[in-house]
Amino acid sequence: MPTILEKITSRESKLDLSRMQDIGGCRVVLSSNEISELRRLEACVRERWAEAVRRTSDYVGRPRASGYRAVHVVVEQDQRLIEIQLRTQRMHQWAQRVEGLSAAFGTNYKQDGESLVQEYARLTAKMYIALDAGEIPVHEDRQQFERLSALIAEELAGLGKNVGPMFGGESI
Questions:
Q1: What is the mean pLDDT of residues 79-86?
Q2: Which end of the chain is more exposed for a tag (fewer CB within 10 A), N or C?
Q3: Angle between helices 116-132 and 89-105 (to 10 degrees)
Q4: DSSP 3-state percent helix, strand, coil across the chain (nearest 5)
Q5: Domain definitions of the chain by residue range
Q6: Do residues 108 and 147 make contact, with C-beta atoms less than 8 angstroms apart?
Q7: Among 2.10.270.10, 1.20.1290.10, 3.40.640.10, 3.30.460.10, what is the CATH number of 2-88?
Q8: 4, 6, 9: which is closest to 23 by C-alpha?
């Protein structure tokens, strides 16, 4: 609900609720990080909803500048648009991390931008893309990731925020 309110009051103030794609929807998070499994699921959804599919947004093949990756399939049911989001574990982890940092700092970092958190998000996505391709992220990216993580942790600590939930102790 907060995202819907944000869309109709600030980001997209002229948006009509009947045209909003994600007022109804669902998210499927695979139990793996296999892009091939994600593509198989996408094919199943598109086949099952064939006549009702209105649009597909492939943010895996073409990630957003923010680093966001997923496949969105918009279908029409009872004259309402419903968005089905498909993600791997890493894609979901990335989105949850950005949502957590947005909540902690009180700023929407999901949109494209140039803040420290958004730089961290783009770099994290870049490293996840390498891992998804079976590659080891390059040393410079890993170093930059550690540096950005430390800077964000410092800022969070300065605000009295718990760092654990945002980073989960994971290193890439």
A1: 94
A2: N
A3: 170
A4: 50, 15, 35
A5: 2-88, 90-167
A6: no
A7: 3.30.460.10
A8: 4
